[in-house]
Amino acid sequence: MGAGTAAWVAVDKTIERIDQNNDRVIEQQAPSSTQEPAYGFPDLEEAGKAQSGVGVDGNKSASSSSSTAPSSSSAAASKPDEPSVEAKAQPEPQPSSFVLPISGEIFAPYSGGELVKNATLKEWRTHDGIDIKADKGAQVKAVCDGKVTAVRDDPLMGMTIEILHHDDITSIYCGLDKKTSVKEGDSVQVGQAIGTVGDIPCEISLDPHLHFAMKVGGAWVDPLKTMGKVSD
């Protein structure tokens, strides 16, 4: 080999070493597939996970959990209001007080199971109510709030209305005109007009009046005492 040939061989080896060094530098500077891409842009897979709320490690991201969890203020706003202590402590409405069904003289009292002579029938019978003197056509009132349980034309007592009140108290109005102001099933209030005075067949020989009676639990009682109009 001549001197010229040897010189070219040395140059070639020097260029080869330079190329190899350049390749190593390029490899060192080139980003690996596991490194974050330049400028902070994620690859497509990572971008898709971020949008679906899944982190790169496969877990739900903290930002996604915090955004989907309801805040305490919104939960409190959707909770129905609790009744106030004052509302719970309100007392139950009390039954209405009693009034007399009509104004007038009570000329025949409740007999309390004792027999009395009936002037019309000419026989001894119990007088299970009170007779209140009144003109025909005088207005008759409900003695307390309640519900009409019966409206019937009784052969002895005439047109009769029964009203059920609190505590199983029933008021009974006998000798009304056949044209009444209420019907069975109606709710009435204390003092409401229910009819007018008419005739009582079994007491027709007496002055016009209303025969008024009461029952508690189905048993006859003194109307005046039951309504608190007289002392025991």
Brief summary:
With 232 residues, this protein is of the alpha+beta class. The chain has 6 helices and 12 strands. It comes from Anaerotruncus massiliensis.
Number of helices: 6
Structural class label: alpha+beta
Overall geometry comes to globular
N-to-C span: 154 Å
Order of helices and strands: HHHHHEEEEEEEEEEEEH
Strand content: 25-35%
Strand segment count: 12
Calculate Rg over CA atoms.
52 Å
Sheet with the most strands? 8 strands, antiparallel
Mean pLDDT: 76
Low-pLDDT segments? 3-11, 29-78
Helix content: 10-25%
Region (Disordered): 14-98
Organism: Anaerotruncus massiliensis
Domain M23ase beta-sheet core: 126-223
Biased composition (Low complexity): 61-78
Task: Provide the fold topology.
Elements: H1 3-29, H2 44-51, H3 62-68, H4 72-78, H5 85-88, E1 106-108, E2 115-118, E3 123-126, E4 129-133, E5 139-141, E6 146-154, E7 158-164, E8 169-176, E9 187-188, E10 193-196, E11 209-216, E12 219-221, H6 223-226
Antiparallel strand pairs: 1-4, 2-3, 4-11, 5-10, 6-7, 6-9, 7-8, 8-11, 11-12
